[in-house]
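Reading a protein record of the kind used here takes only a little practice. These numbers are not coordinates but entries in a learned vocabulary of local backbone shapes. Here is one such record, which you should read through line by line.
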Amino acid sequence: MAKSAAARVTKERAQSDSFAALLEETLGAAQGLEGSVLSGTVVSIDGEFALVDVGLKSEGRVALKEFALPGQKAELKAGDVVEVYLERMEDKNGEAVLSRDKARREEAWTQLEKQFKDNQRVNGVIFGRVKGGFTVDLNGAVAFLPGSQVDIRPVRDVGPLMGTPQPFQILKMDRARGNIVVSRRAVLEESRAEARNELVANLKEGQVLQGVVKNITDYGAFVDLGGVDGLLHVTDIAWRRINHPSEALHIGQTVNVQVVRFNPETQRISLGMKQLEADPWEGVQAKYPVGSRFKGRVTNITDYGAFVELEPGIEGLVHVSEMSWTKKNVHPGKIVSTSQEVEVMVLDVDPVKRRISLGLKQCMENPWSGFLEKNPVGAELEGEVKNITEFGLFVGLTPEIDGMVHLSDLDWERPGEEAVQDYKKGDMVKVKLLDVDIEKERISLGIKQLKKDNFAEASTALKKGSVVTCTVTSINEGGIEVSVGDGVTGFIKKNDLSRERSEQRPDRFAVGEKVDAKITQIDAKTRKVSLSIKAREVEEDKQAMAEFGSSDSGASLGDILGAALNKAKKGGKDEE
């Protein structure tokens, strides 16, 4: 009996040791599972958690969101087999601590390390924004996408890229720190290079392509054709005038363009959009004949005129000289304004140079023609002295028209430089209309014409070659000034004072003395009469010689003159 009791105790001890060893083995094995990925079965769904059995003494709870992609709902039900990560055997509640995220991360890291080593692209989803960039889900592993690596060019709105699976290139991995840096730009650049080579190889002038506006400058826009950029100059965007490309384009806009020029060596591409539309300049001469009137819109104003759009793509220039009949030397911006609708006349069309000359003033009444209709030449008018120049006076005749009184038309007697001193700006003066030149837009006026011209009346009685009696009015070194008649002034030069050189002295005459002289010239322009005593004496000598004899018959000049004088005396006595 004692033996049986001892045997029983020994057996129990053996069983106890065996159970302890088995338990130790089981616990030890379980402890070794911590930090590994296990397969488990979903037992049930409890609210926001799934209860998963991985074959341990207790199940574990895993949040449902860990089984779904970012922004999506988890599709999970009881009985599904899932891979989870065992963090601890049990927590304070005695449940296993499981994680689906870490399980996926472990799986992903293993796969990503292989792809990184083989320099392969990886698929991921941008799901969040962090300082300096974005977070990317690489099938469980979270990577960092720097802002500079999102696209080839800066992206203002990343919204369309968020939540969309797309390829990335791994730039750097550190499993110990859990860091992964990826680039979307590297993938795009690689694809872009391939597309660029293919595009450039097949590029031809005249080819129509689709592109995206990449950048806008003052002189045009750069269009991405899919790996290669082309320049769309501002003048090739549309047939109509475009002051800045932003008026017709915006960054990111998809456009159809035509290859205008392509240089294979420099790989510079010039693009055009207007070339895809009909040229409005075709048949422009028939549409806009010279002399016809049209309405247009002012699109641009410069120092030399204003551009008027007749239709989209057709502009003409109204030169500053064709803007107003009366406003001269005025900036075009003071006559018209941008976007103003105006009526213009076609003056000239050059389809080769693609130019149309327009006139604005031609659609208005010509004030010069209207003035002449109301005021015929010879009419007496009154106006205000607007300005005084070295040429004469400008007199305002209407609010728009001025006429000019030339210096020579101020006074009959005095020189213009002296007569102009009698006038000042603002004076009201009476004038006579002398001439109207409509083409040159000039009006000639006169003030002296309002008075009688004494010289003209007196000079009609004077004839060149006649001998007149005149009165000395002034003496100078060059001769003497004389009064020939009322309002007529004459001059006798020094060498014309006498036939005898010794007598050609102005000082032998006195002011007020009367002399007989022969008229040698009448100058209506200078209003002067030239006379000569010498010419009168020579003429008298010729007459005496002809009447009383000549030196050829033996008579001396003294004898002839003596005979002439005696005859003159005798004739005088007979008359008495």
User: Anything to note?
Assistant: The radius of gyration is 58 Å. The CA atoms of residues 12 and 123 lie 61 Å apart.
